Amino acid sequence: MFVLIRTIAYASLFIGFFLVYVPASLLARVGVAAPTEYGLAQLAGSVLAGAGGALALWCIFTFATRGHGTPAPFDPPRVLVVVGPYRYVRNPMYLGAIGALLGAAVYLTSVALLVYALAFAACMHVFVVGFEEPL
Question: Is the residue at 95 inside a domain?
């Protein structure tokens, strides 16, 4: 039970900061507002953001229930997780987060948010490649 509470806390902080606060601050700074009309871009963005968010949440839940740990690098799963989305991709949680950001960029037709999503993806790649544990 305690691992689930830690997982929710860490995931909420990560999601809240990198996927809500930073993008909202960026959008406010460049003056992007919610679209007044709902068109194809908004539909596509909603689907992509929803799928990305669902994938990220699935990964978080899988880490807690199957790995007995959290997504935080300082409190990783105690057991190697190779089920669910981890059966197919090494870091599906980051793919979900990037999908959510890209979906928001499409929904808002925001180049600034697209650039942020690409920078986030690059940072996650560098983090994953650089975070290898020594043998």
Answer: yes
Evaluate whether 68 touches 3 at the Cβ level (below 8 Å): yes
pLDDT digits (tens, 9 = 90+) for 57-68: 999 999 889 988
Cβ neighbours, 10 Å, residue 135: 3
Q: Which residues contact 96 (CB under 8 A, 6 or more apart)?
A: 51, 52, 53, 54, 55, 56, 57, 58, 59
Residues 111, 78: contact at Cβ < 8 Å?
Answer: no
Residue 126 lies in domain: 2-130
pTM: 0.89
Per DSSP, the residues of 84-133 read GGGGT-S-HHHHHHHHHHHHHHHHHT-HHHHHHHHHHHHHHHHHHHHTPP
User: Are 91 and 128 a contacting pair, CB within 8 Å?
Assistant: yes
**How many independent structural domains does the chain possess?**
1
Tokens of 82: 């190779």
pLDDT of residue 132: 64
